[in-house]
Amino acid sequence: MTTTVVHLVRHGEVDNPGGVLYGRMPGFHLSALGRQMAQRVASYLQDEDVTYLVSSPLERAQETMEPLAEALRQSVTVDERVIEAGNDFEGLTVGKHPKQLLKPRFWGKLTNPLKPSWGEPYAEIAARMSAAVADARAAARGHQAVVVSHQLPVWIARQHFEGKRLWHDPRRRQCTLASVTSLRFEGDSFAGVDYHEPARDLLPKATEAAGSATGRKSA
């Protein structure tokens, strides 16, 4: 049976000294450390049988893909379906200043953490990510594809394919900066997941100051 692997890569560290929950906001690029992380991802994947590259349209994702695309001399398909999750707290600094959420205008956003009520529903993220993975798998059938996305979409995709519940504690996501979550398929059937951190030794130097409105990890 034909084996296909779709690697879901989280982007590297972002230059965000203000600790903004940047979400889908434009203008947020990789830091110098983030670019080192991108090189680590490229080194980890460039000798694999990668035939198809996909990136989120956001700058930090495309910059993470650049070293690998250059090493493989392959073009990159930009796919809106693997973009960051929508978040109603975008633009705030709730990671540094969580008391912002005590303002009455935010109370209605915090009523249902299982959906979640503060942003794009987990079920919608799972649907768009699984569709994007299916297309990447079809394009790279019998080989490997790389998709650079963001922490929450990658984690929700993994939960979806593993048949696990989508709601979760954001602090327990196994999806560090520049990590690689590899989905294995036998034919059209999901066969398992592998997880690697090519930039693990760089992580202690990283700053995830943006945080999340509902947890400690930035996206």
Automatic annotation (TrEMBL):
GO terms for cellular component: cytoplasm. One of its GO terms (molecular function) is phosphatase activity. InterPro entries: His_Pase_superF_clade-1, His_PPase_superfam, PGM_Phosphatase. SMART domains: PGAM (SM00855). This is Histidine phosphatase family protein.
